[in-house]
Amino acid sequence: MAMIAVRCCMMAVMLMSCLPAKADEIHHEMEYSVALSGLPIARASFSTSLDKKRYKIDGTIYSAGIANLITRISAQTTVSGTVSADRFQARNYLLNYTSGKKTRVYEVNFRNGNVTSNSITPEPRRNPDNWVPVTGKDLRAVLDPISGIILPASKKACPARLPIFDGETRMDLVLTPKASKPFSTKGFKGDAIVCSVRFVPKAGFKKNRKDIDYLKKLKTMEIWFAKADPVNVYAPVYVKIPTEYGMLTVSAVRFGGNT
User: Which is it for strands 131-132 and 205-206: parallel, antiparallel or unpaired?
Assistant: First the structure.
């Protein structure tokens, strides 16, 4: 798989966060399937634990099917933080990403929405003449890429802008209401709110990088949110990203159900 498809896949999976449990519940499971032109290329699962005003989300992503013929990709991610009246506020975000024989670890610490520290291990080599650096201003009032996409039902399901920092790249996801469509999977059957998505890179990326430029120009990406009435939030159930290799989709194969 070419690098653009790999990055699209990881971006799509990171858009697919998991659903929090109610205050009197302690565990919740979510599962997703990733496909390219209808062929499975990855699987993802997320587990959420909630204890009063604190939450923790553990996720696992791994390549599957035809993707393994090119290179094996896996990722383990953890985000923890506090629950406020209008959002999940991360305190720590960790991503351990492996592609083939190369592994890289991203860690970000937050306080009140601002990044207090972040690291990448091993530290990547970068040409300063060809790199858009992340500044202190870029790291204020940002969200992690996992719990940042959980939306309280009291807010709009398609917020105007989600300021995301994933440990390396600072980006905005610009969401616009588009339609309402039926969606059905294990644990859910009903209407989903469809939002168009635009990817706006802000900092932390290589200039003239093909996959970044491609995503930036796309105007036909979508993310679908379904409401989970028991916990009163909107969570993603479907994402589609057109690529030059075909349509990349991420679908919830399990939306709810406690263990």
Answer: antiparallel
Residues 6+ apart with CB under 8 A from 34: 9, 12, 13, 40, 41, 42, 43, 44, 248, 249, 250
Which residues pair with residue 62 across a beta bridge?
A: 43, 74
Q: Token pair for residue 147?
A: 């719990």
Nearest to 81 by CA among 59, 60, 114, 53: 53
Is the pTM value of this prediction over 0.90? no
Please write the tens of the pLDDT for every residue from 144-159. Answer: 998 888 887 777 778 8
